[in-house]
Amino acid sequence: MSERKVLTKYYPPDFDPSKIARTRAPKNAGPRQQTVRLMAPFSMKCVTCGEYIYKGRKFNARKETTDEKYYAISIYRFYIRCTRCSAEITFKTDPKNMDYTCERGAKRNFEVWRQGNGEGGVMAEETEEEMLDRLEKEEEERNAMTELETKTLDAKREMAIADALDEIRTRNARNERGGGSLAILHDEQDDEAKRIEREDEEIAKKAFTIDTGERVKRIAAVDDEPKGGASLSAIASTNLVDVPTFKKVVKRKKDFSSALGIKKKS
User: Fold this and answer.
1) Residue 167: other Cβ atoms inside 10 A
2) Residue 194, class by beta-carbon neighbours within 10 Å (0-12 exposed, 13-18 middle, 19+ buried)?
3) Does 26 have pLDDT greater than 80?
4) How high is the pLDDT of residue 113?
5) Concatenated DSSP letters for the chain?
6) Rounded CA gap, 42 and 50, in Å?
7) Confidence class of residue 253 from pLDDT cuts 50, 70 and 90?
8) Is 158 left (phi over 0), alpha (psi -120 to 50) or beta?
9) Which residue, 9, 17, 114, 220, shows the most beta carbons closer than 10 Å to its own?
10) Phi then psi for 118, rounded to 5 degrees?
11) Do 188 and 255 contact (CB within 8 A), yes or no?
């Protein structure tokens, strides 16, 4: 087997290039066609068998250049076949609406965004009044959404306030139910503090009082000698008393559990 890619080819010795006549084939009349690979630009339904062809399905199509033009943009026509019955389906480009137009063999499925008053399901050009009406409707919808969000936030805030008020009411009611026992406890604590204070005053008074009932006075300083000639030692000997010692008294703690209604297990 000879090589497929070679630099030189073999010419026989009797080869005469002048005997090769140039022939001109007639040009194909009509629009020029070529085979291309494409995907379905929209969802459609075959009118022959009722098969649904979804958008994006791949086909081997024939592309045809038509004589129609939109300004300087050429319009192309494509030929495909139904995947079920092999019926021919044609559609062409629509540069005016930046879309495709289904011609024959299939029916384009309904699409909300293309809904309009134009022919063939193509949206008609929007006038200034229609554009203003559409903008007003969009603004109203936007305002409605803002109001709804505001109402939702207010409702959440009110619910939080109501929960806080319920918690405060519950705490106040609990304090009122236990207010009587707490008041009794506070009164008993005040009485006990007053009693301890009185006992301390009585002990201090006894400590600085002699048997005769007179209070112990401070010994006079050395400079303040009496005028009568009495010595300081004599005065001190007459005023000496036994100073009592302060002993720590262990007091029994009072049990307040009975006031609170707490019972201890025996």
Assistant:
1) 10
2) exposed
3) no
4) 66
5) ---SS-SS----TT--GGG-----PPPPPS--EEEEEEE-SS-EEETTT--EE-TT-EEEEEEEEEEEEETTEEEEEEEEE-TTT--EEEEEEETTTTEEEEEESEEEPP-GGG-SSSGGGPPPPPPHHHHHHHHHHHHHHHHHHHHHHHHHHHHHHHHHHHHHHHHHHHHHHHHHHTHHHHHHHHHHHHHHHHHHHHHHHHHHHHHTB-TTSPBPPPPPPSS---TT---HHHHHHHH--PPPP--PPPPPPP--HHHHT-----
6) 16
7) confident
8) alpha
9) 114
10) -75, 165
11) no
Tell me the two tokens of residue 44.
């459609």
Token pair belonging to 53: 């062809």
pLDDT single digits (tens) 165-197: 999 988 888 777 765 566 666 777 888 888 898
pLDDT of residue 29: 61
Between the alpha carbon of residue 2 and those of residues 5, 6, 9, 10, 15, the distances in Å are: 9, 9, 10, 11, 20
Percentage with pLDDT > 70 across the chain = 70
